[in-house]
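Problem 12. The chain below contains 138 residues. Write out its predicted structure in token notation.
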Amino acid sequence: MTKILITGGAGFIASSLANKLLSNKNYFIILVDNFLTGNASNVPKSDRCVFFEIDVNDIDKMRELMNNYNFDIVFHYAAVVGVRRTINNPILVLQDIEGIKNILSLSVSNSVKKVFFSSSSEVYGEPVELPMHETRTP
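Solution.
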């Protein structure tokens, strides 16, 4: 069985990904989230999906989790979202950087086969027009 870790698992995109992946009976999924912006109601209900309330910045807890499960694939979606939230709490963005460093370092030391990382439109700031376009945002 392929073991998959999804960070930020209580968020909309990560939990939607988990729901889709659960359609493959060969996948076992672990979700982690610290509930900064995620919601417990987003977490899929399945015997092949387990949730842990962990902050990816807690290297000791993440190390323990990754050592216990020997993941094949990691999807890293844990991040502070919301332009206003990041402007009001810029230190949280620096913690996001530490979180990705933790995930990458632990993935290497645990021989994870693939790590996926993505961003969102948050990187473009507040839109000046809708729909948003990459070349016409601040």
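Discussion. The longest helix spans residues 90-109. Students who got a different answer should revisit the alignment rule from Section 12.3.
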